[in-house]
Structures are given as C-alpha cells and as structure tokens.
Specification:
alpha+beta; 23 helices
C-alpha cells in the first residue's frame, strides 16, 4: 500500500437542501397546536408578520368574496419546490407583494400595530391558558409526610422515616437498602432505629407502601379479618411464583389445599395492589386536538377538512412594504426589510403548503380505508406510505411527515393518521390480510377455547391456517404476548376437567 500527499480534484454530485426548504418540511410535520406555537414564535421574531383579520363569513378582511376554494387550491400548488434566487435578490417576489396593495387596497393597515380585536383575542387566549393550568396534585411523598406529621415519634425516628419516604420509587417500593441510606460509620443501634422507622412507614397508607419486594408488599396488605387470610399468607410467602405460572396442582401437592380453595384464595389475592404508590403518579394525558375532520356529504362521500380555524392567517405588514420603497430608508434598513419579507413569505407559503398537502394525503388515506371507517377496525386494508405517495404524487418522506403526530376526527372517533397504515400477509386465496385482522381472529379463537385444555401456540397456528391465514409460530407467540394473552399453561382452568 502506497501513501502519498497531494491534491486531487473530484466531481461529486449531491443534493443540498436550502434552509427554507428544511423549514417547509418542519412546518409540514407540526401538529396544529405546535403550529400555533411556531407562528407565535415567528411573529415575535419577525415584525413584518401580522395576523390577517377574518370576517364572520370566513373571508379575510378586504379580500374579494369571489376567491373560492378552487382558487385557493390553485394558488397553493403544494408540491412545487420553493426556489430562492440569490442573484435576482427576489425582485419578482417583492414586486408581487407590492402589487397586492393595489389589488386589495383595504387588506393591509398603514402602520405596524395590532388591532383592538386581536389584542382582546390574545388576552382571552392567555386567560384561558392560565385557567386550564392544572393545580399541583398530591404526590405519594406529600401524602406520607402528612401522615408522618400527625404521629408523635422521636425526632431521630422522624428524620429516618422522612429519609425512607424520600427514597421510595413511584410505585411505593424501597429499592435501596437501609444500610445505603445511613452514613458508612453507622452503628448497629442506628441500623435498628432505621428498621423501626421503616416499620412506621410501612404502617402508613396506602397499605403495602415501603415494601422492598412484591412478596412483602402483598403481605403488608393482608388483614386478619379478610377471607382466606391464613391461606393467602401461605400462598404469598411460599408459592407466589407457582401462582404466577398457574402451577396449581403443584401447590395442591405441597399445601394440601384443594384446587377450588386455591382458586378462591387467588381471587382474593388479585384484589391486593402490587403498586400501591402508582395512584399518586402525576400522569398527564394531554387532550388530543384533531388536525382534520372527516365529513359525510349528502351523497354519502367522505371528505376531509383541515381544522385550522385557530391557526392565525398571516400577512406581511403594508407599513414595512411601503417603507421598503421609501427613498428616505437607509440601505441597511432596506436590507433588513427585504430579509424579513423573504422569511415571512416563506413561512406563509409553508403554512399554505402544509394545509394543502395534509388535506390531500388524508383524503387519499380515507379513500383507501373506506371500509375501516364504514364498518370498523376489523375491515382495515393493508396500506403502505409508498402507496399514498404514489397516489398523491409526492415523495414518501412527505407522506411520513404529513401523518406524523396528526389526528383525524371520524364518525368512529379520533384516530392518529398512522393508524390507517397497516402491514399484512397473503391468505390462501391470494388476498391481502392485515395483521390487525389476524390479531382479531387470534383473540376470537382464544376466547372460544376450552379453558380446561387451552390451545398451544402450535395449535393456534393450525387453527389460523384453517381460517386461511398462514402465520408462523413465532409470529403467533409475538402477537399473543403483545396482546397480553398468557401462555396455554397460564390460561388453563384447573377446576375444569380436561
């Protein structure tokens, strides 16, 4: 191998995306609420952007009523690439913007100030946002600290108990050893105090809190007054793993309990809480705001409408456009205005492109999944993003960005657009069948099986094949686990005779 230093000239062809093209793709990917935040951020950074007032009839203030939907679609030709010609300094764009003032003289204000209605709307929006902020919920630590404060215990024990409480995980378990909670030079007496403090914490509500494993958690919840107390204590202490694996005959052999007694005690055990602290988790579930709505026409056809009523319609300030032509404006000021006009126009075009592309992609999806919407999820058809891309005439990555984190309101409820894409396989008749349909059939077979002798995964493969569905055993096992269905041994009901 020869090593040498020198200059070498190569001709390489590669595609480089302009920053504005990247921005248009980012805008397309935003869900409606994130888009509103993006617009607010851009308005704060670009003084040339203003909100277009909209009349009650939906026509922007000052615009001609003759602008119908078809005109709008022709204006927003979504799949035309944006072109930034630095050599021409975007002169054509600036001339087009200036011509707007002559064509729609009442559209723009003469000064860059916000209208009274706009300021009131902004104030109402902020007020509503503050009113909808959830108050701080009580945490598990708050709940335990409150109970601890009501007890009359020594300061040393109180400090140790508070330290233990602060070390509990979100489910209420103490996953750290007591020794690790104490200083390295702690004496045996201090460790004994820590054990006493732990007992105090474990006596608090909810029952089972402060346990170091599942077995201790369940035992802490037992009460001598509850049914099958002795049997439950035995089962939890010595046979918890056997219960989880449904090895009831083995438990029967070791304990002498009958199968019926074990199952009755097991039913009581299921009433205990394996995660006592989980009820205090602050699980914030955001409201889903649909980006699209599916409407049914009088002739029964499904049509998609974009939900952008709360998205401000933007325009470029007439004040700054006129200032650009003012001979008193300095070169630096004109350069600044040109740069901001260019950025504003790119944003407006990107928002229009997002709306049009999203509507076209969603309509193509709805047209393909008509039976899903009409009859239910079990009728979903196999669908790939490439199919929609080919139908709409865009790149598959455009479809991916368009459906990402977008939701659609349908007569059957709100669905993410990604829900309508489904892989599948081919049945014996040569027809494509979605994996959703296979999972539904698998659930149906298991629901109707004899619980005294439930089907193994191999038997499930055979039964699915009898339905014309050729599925591998590993696929059946994978879907069974994803659906939360136990194995055949765990599904067996030992009280029934096989």
């Amino acid at each position: 191998m020869r090593l040498s230093l020198g200059l070498e000239q190569k001709l390489v062809q590669k595609q480089v995306l302009a920053p504005r093209m990247i921005q248009s793709m980012e805008i397309l990917q935003l869900p409606v609420m994130a888009l509103q935040e993006k617009i607010e951020q851009e308005m704060n950074e670009n003084p040339l952007l203003e909100i277009q007032e909209v009349e009650p009839d939906g026509i922007p203030d000052g615009m001609d009523d003759s602008l119908d939907k078809s005109d709008n679609d022709s204006i927003a030709d979504t799949e035309k690439e944006f072109v930034v010609d630095e050599n021409k300094d975007n002169a054509d764009d600036f001339e087009r913007l200036l011509d707007l003032d002559n064509e729609y003289p009442d559209t723009f204000e003469d000064r860059p100030q916000r209208s009274l209605n706009q300021m009131e709307d902004d104030a109402n929006r902020k007020h509503d946002a503050l009113a909808n902020v959830a108050s701080r919920v009580e945490t598990l630590q708050d709940h335990l600290d409150t109970q601890l404060g009501e007890l009359n215990i020594e300061p040393e024990l109180l400090e140790l108990a508070m330290r233990i409480i602060s070390s509990l995980d979100s489910n209420g378990y103490l996953t750290t050893s007591l020794e690790d909670l104490l200083p390295p030079d702690s004496t045996e007496e201090v460790l004994a105090h820590a054990r006493e403090a732990l007992a105090i914490v474990q006596a608090l509500e909810p029952a089972g809190v402060g346990a170091r494993d599942l077995r201790e958690c369940l035992l802490l919840q037992l009460d001598p007054s509850q049914p099958y107390f002795d049997e439950l204590r035995t089962l939890i202490s010595n046979h918890l793993e056997d219960l989880c694996e449904n090895r009831l005959p083995l438990i029967q052999k070791k304990t002498g309990y009958s199968i019926d007694l074990i199952q009755d005690a097991w039913s009581e055990l299921r009433k205990l809480n394996p995660k006592p602290g989980a009820a205090y988790k602050d699980d914030f579930i955001p409201n889903v705001v649909p980006d699209l709505t599916l409407e049914i026409s009088d002739d029964g056809e499904y049509g998609v409408r974009t939900e952008d009523g709360d998205v401000p319609q933007l325009r470029i300030s007439n004040y700054y456009r006129k200032r650009l032509m003012d001979p008193t404006a300095t070169a630096e000021e004109k350069e600044f205005i040109k740069r901001k006009i260019n950025a504003a126009q790119w944003l407006i075009d990107s928002i229009n492109q997002r709306k049009n592309t999203l509507a076209r992609v969603a309509q193509a999806i709805v047209d393909h999944q008509h039976d899903f919407i009409e009859k239910g999820p079990e009728y979903i058809e196999p669908l790939k993003m490439q199919q929609i891309a080919d139908k709409v005439g865009v790149h598959v990555t455009t479809v991916s960005r368009a459906v990402d984190d977008k939701w659609i309101q349908t007569p059957r409820g709100i669905f993410p657009l990604k829900r309508f894409f489904a892989g599948g396989t081919t049945n014996e008749a040569g027809d494509e069948v979605t994996w959703d349909a296979i999972r539904l059939k698998l659930q149906e077979i298991i629901d109707s099986e004899d619980k005294a002798k439930p089907h193994s995964d191999d038997e499930l493969v055979t039964l699915l094949k009898n339905e014309g569905l050729n599925v591998a055993r590993r696929t059946v096992t994978k879907y069974r686990k994803k659906m939360g269905i136990p194995s055949s041994r765990q599904r067996r009901d030992w009280s029934k005779k096989g």
